[in-house]
Description:
It is built from 7 helices and 15 strands. By secondary structure, it is α+β, with helices and mostly antiparallel strands. Helix 5 crosses helix 7 (255-275).
Amino acid sequence: xxxxxxxxxIKNNQQMRKEELPPGFIEQGxxxxxxLRVIEGVPLFLEKHLERLKNSARLTNLVLPLNDKEISQxxxxxxxxxxxxxxxxxxxxxxxxxxxxxxxxxxxxEHSYPSKEDYQKGIKTVLVNVERPNPNAKVDxxxxxxxxxxAKRKTGSYExxxxxxxxxxxxxxxxxxxxxxxxxxxxxxxxxVLKGITRQMVLAACQNQGYQVVEKEISLEExxxxxxxxxxxxxxxxxxVSQVDDKIINxxxxxxxxxxxxxYDAIIDEYVKSHKS
Length: 277
């Protein structure tokens, strides 16, 4: 169910009241969407989110009704009208039934950032046998979302890790997945996962820190024998994993992960500094 976390949200080019957001609109027809983080009033890595939105439209044979400048202006209007400098924004292009108008929605969503202890010790995850039908396209799918959310709820896990039909572990339900063995960082090939914006920045942080990254398919057995595991996404940024089902993994003390966390934070700081008005 979609809820505006702040008093004002945007439909097309119009400001709307919180209670006017239709809770189930995103499940009508097809919805392409992005979730980005706002820090100090700056929509983080906006250019890359817009590029991924355009890629999702290409993969689903849909035409975007707005250009980059128009979307950017509406997101800035959302930030300014709510007087918010920190949070998460979801923006959606909704394609309802054939012949109906395509609509743009943008609203602040409730965010839950990890605690200091989560970053120090890591978080619990659960394995789920499910895979995205089109992993490179960010399209809302209620069945997929419900499966992932139910597995997390039942086990009290922060994230679900997806296991495909071949027994490989590709990504998280709402995150990208990385593993460390020795001084090498491993992650699934780009064509097998959603190309997360944070994932791109993590790869850049690895390069900046001088860490080798290998993209390859990794089996569940291989993953469980790694030295450390972490996920990356908009809200948690770079977050160590301490548990996969019943398997305990001491990721929180891994020096490589700490280096990547520092490198990623440095990229954020530089972006915010260069984009503040």
